[in-house]
Amino acid sequence: xxxxxxxxxxxxLLLACSAPSxxxxxxxxxxxxxxEDVKSLVPDLPTDRIKAGSFEDVLREYRQMNDRLxxxxxxxxxxxxxxxxxxxxxxxxxxxxxxxxxxxxRGVAQALLGLEPNAIYVRSVRRGSPAEKADxxxxxxxxxxxxxxxxxGPTMTRFYSALSRGAFxxxxxxxxxxxxxxxxxxxxxxxxxxxxYPTRVIFSQEINGHTDGQEVYITSELMRGVPDDVNLALIxxxxxAHAIAGHMNQAPTKALELEADRMALVLxxxxxxxxxxxxxxxxxxxxxxxxxxxxxxSHPTIVERYENFRQEQARIRDLKxxxxxxxxx
Length: 329
Description:
Elements: H1 10-15, H2 22-29, H3 55-79, E1 87-90, E2 93-97, H4 106-113, E3 120-125, H5 130-133, E4 141-145, E5 148-149, H6 156-168, E6 173-178, E7 184-189, E8 192-195, E9 199-202, E10 209-211, E11 216-219, H7 220-225, H8 229-245, H9 254-270, H10 275-284, H11 290-294, H12 302-321
Parallel strand pairs: 9-11
Antiparallel strand pairs: 1-8, 2-3, 4-5, 4-6, 6-7, 10-11
Helix pairs in contact: 3-8, 8-9, 9-12, 10-12
């Protein structure tokens, strides 16, 4: 969805789709004051709402949530590059720096994650990715990309973002890294073409999913409420569909929401997810706020959405039986 809508039902856990609150936006965009600034590699964490002794637990949970979201969204991004208007070369790892974390948490980040100031590190490596095949490990410090050093200082994150985009665009990328025990090594990585709609978790007590057309944001509360990966994939694919179709540039309507639902099933099917299971879950879910959705001018009713799912499910099944290419309708 592309404008705020209060949703707390089980249906919201499937397709929560509203704009972040002011707090969520700040967490997602960091402290950027210039159009030239790039977003931090991790959004701000809620230091004002947790006790100092809990910082370690928050960092662990944040890493686990992002690792899960990356694992669930990766098949969607990698399998649908041909359908996406924006693509990039995905190396299969996520990076971060000490400066990405709030000042109050940097001591814990140094001790728990092994981060030092003015350096870029590998945060996570996706299973089966080019990075895993290149034997890159979480905690390794990134020193050079294709021979170009990653400098420290206030422009470090911006420089790394620009440098990595260029470096991973080629068929092969040569990386020089340093392990936590101080051993330097060089490896060759072959990135994969993927849809250029990164996913990230933002800390918020709202059950919410959102896209700004460039990234997909899922709140921590929504991540906690969706333990099943198939349904997390449905949420992610729905938001990605909005971005692919450019719905952010249009007034929200029922037709756009239904189109995003149909596109989401195509994205999921191409990625190997069980869309039958996702639709069954939708049908069996409790919808205590049915009246709110049924009375909405910009959102389809529960019945309309379910019938839309079933029709697209049948179209996909027919295409598969005819051995035809699966594309958006």
